[in-house]
Structure formats: C-alpha cells, structure tokens
C-alpha cells in the first residue's frame, strides 16, 4: 500500500474520533446519550439506519456473491419499501408517542414486566453474541489479503469505534453514521468506475451487459415456488418482508435510530428515505459483483482468491498445482478471446455470428469452470475436508491488485466505515437495553442524571470491549460464531409476533404475549429441525405462531376472568 | 389510548406529498415498478 492510501485511512480514523469527542461534551442525561434529545433530522437518521444495516460484509460478501451467482440476492430486499410503510403506519407512532428509550420498554406498558424483560434479554443475548462478527468477518479477510495482523486490525476498528460511541453517545453515532453512509455511496460509484475502466477499448458497457447475460448473471427475479430455495420472489416478498419488519421494527439497534427524530414526521421520513434508496443501493452493490465478473475476463483472476488456499496448494501439491495453473492460463486466454469475439459479433449485428460467438463463449466458460472445479477437488484432497468458499476474498483481492493509489485508500475507508457504522449502532443499542430495561428498571430506578450517564458509558464500554475481545478469539470459535448468527435468525420472527400481538390484538395480555413467545420459539426450532424449508420462512412461522397462540391464550384468560 | 393518538397522527400533512396516504401509495407503486423492472431485466438480459 502506498503512503497516500495510509494517509487517507488515517484521516478517516482521525475524523470519526474528533466527531465523537465534539458531540460527547453535550451529553448530560439519558435522553441526550441514547436519544440525542430527540433532535435529529430525517436525512441523518435515515442514512444512519442504512449504515447500520450495511456492514463490511455487504461490500465484501455481497459483491463476491453476485460475482459467483448473479443478482438473485436482490429479491430479499424487495419488500423493504413496503415494510417501511407498515412501520410508518404502526410501529413508529406507537413507539414515538409512548416516549420510550427501547422497543421492549413499550411491551411493559402494553403487557407486563416479564414480557419486556424476556424480549430484551433475547435481544441482548442474540445481538451481543453476533456483534463480534461485524468486526471479525472483515478483519480476517483484510488481514489475509493485505498481510495485516488480524488482531491488530480488529483492535484498531473496535477501539476507535468504542471511543467515539462511548464518549459521543447516540447522536454522535447517528451523525457519524450519516457521513460514513455518504462515503459508502461514493465507494459504490468509484467501484463501478474502477471495473468499467478494466474493459479493453473495443469492449463497450453494452457488451459487458450482454456477456453477463449470457452467463445468466442478471437473474434478479426467480418466479419459482420452491420453498427450499432462499432467493426467489416468493421467499423474498414473504420471508424477506417478515425478516425486515422484525429487524427494523423490533431490533433495538434500528428502533433506537428513529426514536431520535425531531418529530414523528421526521422519524417517519427517515424510514421513507430507506424505502426509496435501499433497493437501488443494493442493486448497485450486486452490479459491482457482476461488473467484477466481466472485468476478470480481461485481467486474469487468481486460481484461488484466498492466499491461504493458494499457499497450501503450492506447498502440498506443488507439481499437480503447477500443471493446473498451466491449464488455467490456457482456459483464461480462450475465455478472454471468446468474450472479445462476442463483443465483435454484437457490433456486426449479424444474428448467426452472434449465436456462434455465444456458443464459443459458453464452451470457453465451461472449460474455465472445469479447471476451477479441479482446483477445488485438489484443495479438498489436500485439506482432507470440503474447502470453504472464497467468494469473500474476490473484492478485496481486486482492490489490492488493481485499485490505483488514493482510490485504494478511499475504498479501504469505505470498508472500515461500513464495519464501524454497524458496530457503533449495535453496541450503543446493547447499552441502552442493558441500562433502560434492566439496570434502571430493576437495580437503580431513582439515581441522578450523572449516575445514569456514567452507567450508560460503562455499559457501552463493556459491550464494545466484550465484542472486540470475542472478535479477537473468533478464529478459535469460528464455527460457534457462525452458529450464533444462524440461531439469531430463529428469534426475529417470534419477537415480531409479540409486537404484532400488542398492536393488532387489543384484548391480548401479558400471559398471552409471554407464553405465545415461548410457543413461537418452539415452533421455529421445530421447523428448523424437522423441515428443510429456507431459513427466510422461519420469521413467518415464528410471528404467525406467536400471534395466534398469544391471541388464544389471552382470550382463554379473559374468558376465565369473566 | 395509544390507538387514538395514531388515528390523529395519520391525518397530519406530509411536507412533500401533502397527505401521508399519498406518500404510502407512491411507495407501493414504486415497489411494484421495481419488481416489474427487475423482472423485465431478467427476461431481457439473461440469455
């Protein structure tokens, strides 16, 4: 990396820390610290909501996924505009008018203390364990690609974020998030330009679109009704709808963003901003992956994007791997020529030559994939187990090899911004749930402002240190972290069900919500264990069971009382 | 009590679209247009 790139990254870190200190001076009480005195504008809150959702993996993993499998992932995001409308009509006015600090606080007013404590506890456990992944996942990839020390990368990101979040509170988090989100938007357009300039002079953007189409990369909509498939219009619109409703409506890391709006109108507007921007943003991020796929027809991609895999193969299967590399070179050259001839055929406008060029390209692509498959088999035999996918390494690998000086620094700042904006919002929300739902509720209900402010900073520091430490050790407990993330999706649906019960069933009560939540959890675990439907549908099952069971239990209780 | 607050708030004018319902309708139309555009893109560009 050039000195100029390091300077850009250093300036980014200096700026976020300075902003944290600047806002930290204004915090006097819990309202300042967790809700920014409910004084924030809709655009800042809206950008913060987007920044919280978009982690570094959105940039690194999603682009790699589109490189490999095309645009189908976009379907998960399609219901988000509709979710924002539902939130504006129901959740946001309920929360805003109730003048609460956490989403779970509302449940005590509506039901009882045990329902509030259980939902908040589930949030703390699931989010608290998963938050370390926000730091760990990009750090492991960046350290492998750039040769950095993994622990040092985690510590720099973690400690900087802890400092500005602990000192500045939620207002600093939101205002910094908003700027980080603008940087991320800039990063998207820079990346698009970066890939387009890799095309040869005789190969146009229209040729690139055509080439990606021949490989089926523009598969944005899949009308299949297969319940086992995660990326179809049905799973996206149904499962994705419940997932997004649960995430934006019941997860404190998001609710805490729009509770800071200057007015109810400003809070709603922040969600409407998301309704209009989120899908186009995700489309562009996936399109980066598709453009990267096309670019790698003209610059040779490594046979293994993961340097660790490459090094294992070189050391343990030297001659076989060298032979495979030779085959790979030939397959790449043939595919490059086939891609260029496809572009030339398009220019002629002759259908027959276009069909022939497409056939030639498909044969070349098949040969190319065959070498990749042989490489995977060789890797499997060397490792003695199924190798993990290296799609997460594709985008950073491109940056280190082809991004010009200055641009590399900006793109690294974008990746850091994406990771840190999610991490800051999450540790801030974990602290608010800890202090408001447990410490203030059960241990110190009547302390003064200075005490609560100190306790809140302590809780932010605790969660930040806990997550950073967990990320440092995640290499040893990697499978556990992954399991926790998967299990986390089991809780979203049932928690959503409790809130829907509160809003939609007027006669529902605390026992209905509490036991309905337990019934919903049992149903989700049973479906996950006994069926093979996509995980996106777990949210639908969980929310529906809680709603029905909760309503029935509440009615039984009411009938007995009368 | 809370339910009554929401009924009242829903009638507040929206700064750009004059009514919230008009804004919500535009978001729904926008979603339909997105799905349709992506579907057309899929069938037009995928070969």
Could you characterize what this model shows?
The complex is a heterodimer of chains A (562) and B (47). By secondary structure, chain A is mostly helical. Chain A folds into two domains: 3-296 and 398-472, Up-down Bundle (Sodium/glucose cotransporter); 307-387. In chain A, 79% of the residues lie in helices and 0% in strands. Chain A is built from 22 helices and no strands. In chain A, α9 (150-196) crosses α13 (264-295). In chain B, 72% of the residues lie in helices and 9% in strands. Chain B has helices at 2-9, 20-45, and strands at 13-14, 18-19. In chain B, strands 1-2 form a two-stranded antiparallel ribbon. Chain B is rod-shaped, with a radius of gyration of 17 Å. The chains are: A mainly alpha (562), B mainly alpha (47). At the A-B interface, α5, α6, α10 and α13 of A face α1 and α2 of B.
* Total DSSP helices of chain A: 22
Would you identify the CATH H-level superfamily of the largest domain in chain A?
Sodium/glucose cotransporter
Largest sheet of chain A: none
The chain-level structural class of chain B is: mainly alpha
Largest sheet of chain B: 2 strands, antiparallel
Nearest-integer average pLDDT of chain B: 78
Biggest chain contact: A-B, 37 and 25 residues
Number of strand segments of chain A:
0
Task: Specify the structural class of chain A.
Answer: mainly alpha
Strand order across the largest sheet of chain B: 1-2
Kindly report the oligomeric state of this protein.
heterodimer
* SSE order of chain B: HEEH
Instruction: Compute the CA-based radius of gyration of chain A.
Output: 25 Å
Percent helix of chain A, as a range, is over 70%
Spatial gap, N to C terminus of chain A: 75 Å
Uncertain runs of chain A are none
* Poorly predicted segments of chain B: 1-8
Number of contiguous helices of chain B: 2
Termini separation of chain B: 57 Å
Please, how many domains of chain B?
1
Helix-residue proportion of chain B: over 70%
């Amino acid at each position: 990396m050039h000195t100029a790139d390091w300077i850009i990254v250093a300036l980014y870190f200096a700026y976020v820390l300075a902003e944290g200190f600047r806002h930290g001076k204004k915090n006097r009480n819990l309202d300042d610290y967790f809700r920014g005195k409910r004084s924030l504008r809709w655009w800042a809150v809206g950008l913060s909501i987007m920044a919280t959702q978009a982690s570094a993996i959105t940039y690194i993993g999603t682009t790699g996924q589109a490189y490999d499998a095309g645009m189908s992932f976009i379907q998960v995001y399609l219901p988000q505009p509709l979710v924002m409308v539902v939130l504006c009509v129901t959740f946001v006015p309920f929360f805003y008018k109730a003048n609460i600090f956490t989403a779970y606080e509302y449940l005590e007013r509506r039901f009882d203390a045990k329902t509030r404590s259980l939902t908040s506890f589930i949030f703390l456990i699931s989010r608290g364990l998963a938050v370390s992944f926000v730091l760990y996942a990009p750090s492991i990839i960046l350290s492998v690609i750039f040769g950095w020390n993994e622990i040092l990368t985690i510590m720099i990101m973690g400690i900087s974020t802890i400092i500005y979040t602990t000192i500045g509170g939620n207002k600093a988090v939101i205002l910094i998030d908003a700027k980080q989100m603008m940087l991320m938007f800039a990063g998207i357009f820079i990346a698009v330009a970066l890939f387009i300039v890799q095309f040869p002079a005789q190969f146009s953007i229209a040729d690139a679109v055509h080439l990606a189409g021949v490989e089926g990369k523009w598969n944005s909509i899949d009308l299949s009704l297969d319940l086992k498939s995660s990326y179809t219009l049905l799973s996206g619109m149904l499962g994705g709808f419940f997932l997004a409703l649960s995430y934006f409506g019941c997860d404190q890391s998001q609710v805490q963003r729009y509770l800071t709006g200057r007015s109810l109108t400003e809070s709603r507007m922040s969600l409407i901003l998301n309704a209009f921007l989120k899908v186009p943003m995700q489309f562009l991020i996936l399109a980066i992956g598709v453009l990267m796929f096309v670019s790698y027809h003209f610059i040779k991609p490594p046979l293994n994007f993961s340097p660790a895999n490459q090094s294992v193969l070189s050391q343990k299967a030297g001659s076989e791997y060298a032979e495979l590399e030779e085959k790979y070179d030939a397959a790449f050259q043939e595919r490059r020529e086939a891609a260029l001839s496809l572009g030339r055929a398009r220019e002629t406008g002759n259908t027959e030559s276009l069909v022939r060029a497409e056939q030639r390209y498909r044969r070349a692509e098949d040969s190319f994939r065959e070498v990749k498959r042989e490489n995977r088999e060789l890797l499997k035999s060397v490792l003695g187990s199924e190798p993990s996918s290296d799609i997460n390494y594709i985008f950073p690998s491109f940056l280190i090899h082809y991004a010009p000086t200055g641009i590399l620094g900006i793109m690294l700042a974008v990746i850091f911004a994406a990771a840190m904006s999610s991490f800051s919002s999450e540790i801030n929300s974990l602290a608010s749930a800890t202090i408001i739902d447990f410490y203030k509720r059960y241990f110190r209900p009547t302390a003064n402002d200075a005490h609560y402010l100190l306790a809140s900073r302590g809780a932010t520091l605790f969660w930040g240190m806990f997550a950073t430490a967990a990320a440092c050790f995640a290499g040893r407990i990697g499978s556990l972290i992954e399991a926790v993330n998967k299990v986390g999706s089991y809780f979203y649906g049932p928690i959503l069900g409790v809130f829907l019960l509160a809003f939609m069933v007027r006669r529902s009560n605390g026992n209905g919500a509490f036991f309905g939540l337990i019934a919903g959890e049992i149903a989700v675990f049973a479906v996950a264990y006994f069926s093979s439907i996509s995980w996106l549908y777990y949210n639908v099952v969980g929310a529906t069971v809680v709603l029905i069971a909760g309503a029935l239990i509440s009615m039984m209780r009411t009938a007995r009382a009368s | 009590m809370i339910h009554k607050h929401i009924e009242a708030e829903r009638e507040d004018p929206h700064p750009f679209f004059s009514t919230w319902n008009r804004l919500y309708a535009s978001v729904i139309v926008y979603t339909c247009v997105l799905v349709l555009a992506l579907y057309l893109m899929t069938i037009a560009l995928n070969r």
